[in-house]
Amino acid sequence: MKTLGILGGMSWESTALLYQHLNREVAARLGGLSSADLLLRSVNFAEIEALQRAGDWAGAARQLGAAGAGLKAAGAQALLIATNTMHKVADEVEALSGLPLIHIVDVTAQALQAAGVQRVGLLATRYTMEEDFYAMRMRNRHGIETLTPAPAQRLEVHRIIFEELCRGQIRAESRAIYLQAVQDLAEAGAQAVILACTEIALLLAPETPAALPLFDSTRLHAQAAVAWMLGGTTTV
Asked: Which of 15, 83, 85, 148 is catalytic?
């Protein structure tokens, strides 16, 4: 089994979920007491979130890149960034860390393509929904068009992530807001919806009855990472 490095803590709530997915996937594939060979660097999310709000993405990239370099020095052979939003600086982090990166957009796109999805809704932080790094990679590399909720709905989706989910708060009224956003994306022409923030699956599991199929980027990321760790078809 190859050793995987994880840049986590953004937030720790979703990193804990990713950790579970990775270990359960390894156990399911290998059986017995098997678990994942991992190195985790969990950063202080308050520092990263402040850089996000300030628009200092270069500063965030430097901090995560240095953390990734530390994982390489400790023996990691590839890297996961355990957050969708910080894939905005994925190329910079990959270069600074010196490790090949398993990109969350690519593995999510592969699952969408396998399901025949060509137009997908995006539920995520406002950075992921409103900036072009996610949608452009989906379109240019994978031929998949992304749709986002209306502006007021985007603000509410973002607020719930940072004020509730990142703090471990799960509220039925917030689930209803997300389900309405899925319904609206269906009416706008989406064929499925990506849960494109690692925390969203805490509120809206992919098995939740909804107007569209839900693709959990965190779970897909974990499955692809384990395939790489065990020498499967996923490459970095």
From this structure: 83
Average pLDDT estimate for 84-98: 96
End-to-end alpha-carbon separation of the chain, Å?
A: 15
104 closest CA partner among 198, 213, 231, 228: 198
Q: With 0-12 CB in 10 A as exposed, 13-18 as middle and 19+ as buried, what is 219? A: buried
Residue whose tokens read 């065990």: 230
Choosing from 108, 125, 197, 198, the catalytic residue is 197
Q: CATH for 105-218, among 3.30.830.10, 3.40.50.1860, 3.90.1150.10, 3.90.470.20?
A: 3.40.50.1860
Write down the pTM of the prediction: 0.92
- What is the pLDDT of the chain when averaged over all its residues? 95
CA 53 to chain centre: 19
197 catalytic? Reply is yes
Is-contact 47 11, C-beta < 8 A?
no
Give CA–CA dist 52/58, Å, rounded: 10
Give the pLDDT mean for 78-97.
96
